[in-house]
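Summary: Need help interpreting a holo structure output

Steps to reproduce:
1. Submit the protein chain below together with the SMILES for zinc ion.
2. Request a joint structure prediction with the ligand placed.
3. Inspect the structure token block that comes back.

Expected: a single structure record containing both the chain and the bound molecule.
Actual: see attached output.

Input attached:
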Amino acid sequence: MDVYKLQKSDWGELPLNKESFESSTGKRNPWYTNNRSGNPATFAVCPGCDNPILILGFLFKLANTDTPYARHYQGNVEGLAEYRDWAYENCPYSNPKEYDRKSKRPAADPLGDKILDILVPNFDRVVYLLEKDIGIRISSALAEKMLEDYRDWNGHLYMGATLQNIPWVFAYMTVSKSLAGRVVFNNSELLAAIEEHQVQGVVIDHKSHRIGWQEGKYLSLDVCFIHHRARHRDHHLQETMVMQVTTGRPPHAREIYRQTIEFNRDHFKNLLNMSPERAKRPRRKELVELAEKILGTR
Ligand SMILES: [Zn+2]
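--- attached output ---
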């Protein structure tokens, strides 16, 4: 991996950079310590699973690459992190993959609670990021339904969930939702696809960008988030999911539109770090309260 964090309680990932690592650690223990064999080594914490990671290539040139990278360390590093096998097995940084089944972390794993501690107080920001990525307005009523799905499916325990991918995994851990009545404020491709496929009974208002329907007709038009995938490119983790829009009921459903959504983890990090003075948009307290109501009493 090409990112790290300095301690378990941090939630953001930092790019692996020798200068900033040296200055922020002061070259002190527990980051600079001995490995199991008694040889000096440089350690940090994995942003994905809170396990220890070993940093390679800061001081000595690597055989296969000029770029430093970090990899999981299967042992405890005193004062930094203890190795948890389950978390390692399911960490996107160790094991890039498609998370096919909605498999869960053990309920006792501390990462799940940390995810909720970020998701709940920042739920308005999560909604903002998702709206921006999908171009569809998420009303309070829709947000509430999604929160209920996430709660019922134990989204915070999903094995692909990390502290950095919270907004997208939130959407991924919901089930199919109707697009009837939704405002598509910034996704002209989606609106064009709905028209092109001549979805029965649909009426698109091109002024308000609202997906309406003919009176007395039932509109079958649904959106869901599928195929959460993680893969590495040059030690960099790339995560995506797919937004799929269909009409009809399976097995006779027809795909109208599909869009790959790349997780912009840095954007989420920047949003969380934004000071109130610099924020352009006011916080939406009602959304945070909604999240507290539904996810607060676990
Ligand atoms: Zn990890």
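--- end attachment ---

Reviewer comment: The chain is about 30% helix and 20% strand. Residues 110-295 form one domain.
Status: needs-info
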